[in-house]
């Protein structure tokens, strides 16, 4: 039974039980409709409490139904049915009331919630707008400004804030069901508030819409849904209720079938698949209650901050007192930034720092459950660290390296109990970036691999398992992407045009801009190192720039020039001169063609990675690029994009036939 009804005197309690998240599939919509009919006809009932079993209140429409023809009762009709029921309904919220779930709650006359619940309209994150009155009722409840913030960002609001804004009527302490029934009993003794369909929507201040048009467009970076959601709220405030509902519905249906919505649904399911690899079913990770970070540089401090933010006590180890002091300053600086942005209170900062033990003595690691090494990217330095760790740590402690380019097997050479060793590749800044590449060696124990995933969950990161190769998944594709971008420069496409094309595609930055920001020298030194080892590394244009002293913004110029104190890239005559001999103009390419070429090249390298078994599934590649490299989420990632382009489109994009490996991926679903 998806919906059941119990009676507590004059109050009926409808319980929804539709695991895992009480999504509004057809059976639930029908069940709620029938319950409304039954209870309206029951003279002994004066109010209805709507509560959910399991982990959450109704988390929204059933996303798996989006590709199928809608079956009545439709959600907008159900919300209207609840809103006009003869008895007032009280939504009793725990977990999350999201999307259609919050729209059902808006149809209820009252909303009550436990303190850790949240409410929200996250539809834009799925490339759609609310489709059951969310954009129309929310401004009637809390005004246009708050409604715009909710529907254009999709960010949920926690119960205490929801209460202060008026999104919910009260926060229930203790048992939700008992509290909601008591609330309903009291509510029916006072005059009832008007349902939202009968309330006016007040106009926002002068200039509000124009300002929002700009702000929302800027934040959306090419995603269509946020601006369409804004238009819906505007219509809700300027038009009448029925007209606004019709406009919202039309917008919802239009977007639901769009490429962007398909891409975002793909990402939604990919994000739920990646953290739970099938190979780890039933595998229990080793317990981790304490952690250590070796190295207090940018990476080490970022990792330590992420661990502290997740409540883990951290030991920070550095080679000497000066380095330790710098490490602590780096860490303190991260928390200072959080305080400045209002994300952390000064007391919170003090608490974060109090949970850090700083030492230069490896002896302090004897009892630590997890150690993450983040020292200089040099094999001998890393090996020396693990030799010490092997000597002092418990034999079952999980030992991880944060290497981004070295082979983890080389780092672990000689380590006792190598089953406890794993690669955990964080991205900078490690307390911010979501991606975590998890790189087991052939010796890594399954439960240690499970530790990688458990840690990602604890830190709120997106884990993707990667095999061992140069650069793992993300940096290997990045290298190929940069080489492909250099090929375009050689073919006469201006550097600034390539960057503009990729920004136009929705990337946070173009490939050359990004190198100027991060510095060209690190990759250069790696290439030089490989060349010194006798590896065949073709010359790059980046080599020419670094050898001329152009290492990026930090040296005053890289692919672009910069005027002091200004980070805006300026096309550089010096670069043009340095590279003149390398450029042999080919056919003209417009920005679309440039972006498609480079994204198709990413897919080419990704396909090779899949063929080698370095990545498990195409959707993992998409997550790596989205969460680690600024690939636009609404494009679904390079593999999703490649599948949408198909063999013919890719042949056009690449200027040649796709490789067998890429064709094999296209042949998959
Ligand atoms: C909408 O409502 C449109 C309306 O405005 C208009 C309609 C006309 N549908 O995330 P988890 C599955 S759009 C189907 O790991 P958590 C998920 O795939 C919707 N399935 O749990 C997974 O399945 P599996 C707006 C869904 O506890 C399982 O549930 N709503 C849906 O970490 C567990 O998911 C949203 O966008 C769904 N809507 O987090 C909310 N949601 O076990 C989306 C989840 O087979 N959901 N599943 O892999 C969430 O944000 C989180 O699931 C939630 C729980 C916070 C609720």
Describe, in short, the structure shown.
It contains 27 helices and 19 strands. With about 675 residues, the protein is of the alpha/beta class. The chain has an eight-stranded mixed β-sheet with strand order 12-11-10-13-14-15-16-17, sandwiched between helices. The chain has a six-stranded mixed β-sheet with strand order 1-2-3-4-6-9, with helices on both faces.
What is the topological layout?
Layout: E1 3-8, E2 11-16, H1 26-40, E3 47-52, H2 75-83, E4 89-93, E5 96-98, H3 100-107, E6 110-114, E7 118-120, H4 134-142, H5 144-153, E8 157-158, H6 159-165, E9 170-172, H7 176-187, H8 208-220, H9 225-238, H10 241-256, H11 259-273, E10 291-294, H12 298-309, E11 314-317, H13 321-340, H14 346-354, E12 356-359, E13 370-373, H15 379-392, E14 398-401, H16 408-411, E15 421-426, E16 435-440, H17 446-459, E17 462-465, H18 474-490, H19 495-505, H20 511-518, H21 521-532, H22 541-547, E18 560-561, E19 570-571, H23 573-579, H24 591-611, H25 618-629, H26 638-654, H27 660-667
Parallel strand pairs: 2-3, 3-4, 4-6, 5-7, 6-9, 10-11, 10-13, 11-12, 13-14, 14-15, 16-17
Antiparallel strand pairs: 1-2, 7-8, 15-16, 18-19
Helix pairs in contact: 1-2, 2-3, 4-5, 4-9, 5-9, 8-9, 9-10, 11-25, 12-13, 13-14, 18-24, 19-24, 24-26, 24-27
The chain binds (S)-3-Hydroxyhexanoyl-CoA (3H9).
């Amino acid at each position: 039974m998806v919906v059941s009804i119990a009676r507590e005197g004059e109050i009926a309690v409808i319980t929804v039980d539709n695991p895992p998240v009480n999504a509004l599939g057809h059976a639930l919509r029908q069940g709620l409709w029938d319950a409304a009919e039954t209870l309206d006809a029951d003279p002994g009932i004066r109010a209805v409490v709507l509560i959910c079993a399991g982990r959450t209140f109704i988390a929204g429409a059933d996303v798996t139904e989006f590709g199928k023809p809608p079956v009545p009762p439709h959600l907008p009709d159900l919300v209207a049915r609840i809103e006009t029921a003869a008895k007032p309904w009280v939504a009793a919220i725990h977990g999350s009331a999201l999307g259609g779930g919050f729209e059902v709650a808006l149809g209820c006359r009252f909303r009550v919630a436990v303190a850790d619940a949240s409410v929200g309209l996250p539809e834009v994150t799925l490339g759609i707008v609310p489709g059951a009155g969310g954009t129309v009722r929310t401004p009637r409840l809390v005004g246009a400004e708050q409604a715009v913030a909710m529907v254009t960002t999709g960010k949920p609001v926690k119960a205490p804030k929801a209460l202060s804004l008026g999104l919910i009527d009260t926060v229930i302490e203790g048992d939700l069901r008992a509290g909601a029934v008591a609330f309903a009993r009291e509510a029916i003794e006072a005059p009832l508030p008007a349902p939202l369909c009968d309330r006016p929507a007040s106009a926002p201040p002068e200039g509000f819409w124009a300002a929002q048009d700009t702000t929302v467009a800027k934040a959306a970076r090419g995603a269509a849904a946020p601006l369409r959601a804004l238009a819906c709220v505007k219509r809700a405030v300027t038009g009448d209720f029925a007209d606004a509902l019709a406009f919202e519905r039309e917008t919802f249906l239009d977007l639901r079938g769009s490429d962007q919505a398909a891409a975002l649904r793909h990402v939604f399911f990919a994000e739920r698949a990646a953290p739970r690899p099938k190979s780890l079913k039933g595998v229990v990770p080793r317990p981790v209650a304490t952690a250590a970070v070796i190295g207090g540089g940018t990476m080490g401090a970022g990792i330590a901050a992420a661990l502290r933010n997740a409540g883990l006590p951290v030991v920070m180890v550095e080679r000497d007192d000066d380095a330790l002091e710098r490490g602590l300053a780096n860490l303190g600086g991260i928390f200072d930034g959080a305080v400045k942005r209002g994300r952390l209170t000064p007391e919170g900062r003090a608490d974060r720092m109090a949970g850090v033990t700083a030492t230069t003595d490896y002896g302090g690691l004897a009892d630590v459950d997890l150690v993450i090494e983040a020292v200089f990217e040099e094999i001998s330095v890393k090996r020396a660290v693990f030799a010490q760790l092997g000597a002092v740590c418990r034999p079952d402690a999980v030992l991880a390296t944060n290497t981004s380019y070295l082979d983890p097997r080389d780092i672990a050479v000689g380590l006792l109990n190598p089953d406890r060793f794993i690669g955990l590749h964080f991205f900078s800044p490690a307390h911010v970036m979501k991606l975590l590449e998890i790189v087991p060696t052939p010796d890594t124990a399954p439960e240690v691999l499970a530790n990688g995933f458990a840690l990602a969950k604890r830190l709120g990161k997106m884990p993707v398992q990667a095999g061992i190769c140069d650069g793992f998944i993300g940096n290997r594709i990045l290298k190929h992407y940069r080489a492909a971008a250099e090929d375009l420069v050689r073919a006469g496409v201006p550097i600034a045009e390539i960057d503009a094309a990729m920004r136009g595609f929705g990337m946070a930055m173009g490939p050359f801009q990004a190198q100027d920001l991060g510095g060209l020298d690190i990759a250069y030194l790696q290439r030089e190192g490989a060349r010194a080892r006798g590896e065949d590394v073709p010359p790059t244009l980046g080599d020419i720039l670094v050898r001329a002293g152009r290492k990026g913004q930090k040296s005053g110029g890289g692919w672009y020039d910069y005027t002091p104190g200004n980070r805006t890239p300026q096309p550089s005559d010096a670069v043009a001169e340095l590279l003149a001999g390398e450029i042999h103009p080919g056919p003209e390419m417009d920005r679309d063609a440039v972006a498609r070429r480079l994204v198709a090249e990413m897919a080419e390298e990704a396909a090779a990675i899949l063929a080698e078994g370095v990545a498990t599934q195409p959707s993992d590649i998409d997550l790596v690029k989205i969460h680690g490299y600024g690939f636009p989420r609404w494009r679904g990632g390079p593999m999703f994009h490649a599948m949408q382009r198909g063999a013919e489109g890719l042949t056009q994009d690449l200027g040649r036939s796709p490789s067998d490996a890429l064709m094999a991926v296209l042949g998959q679903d």
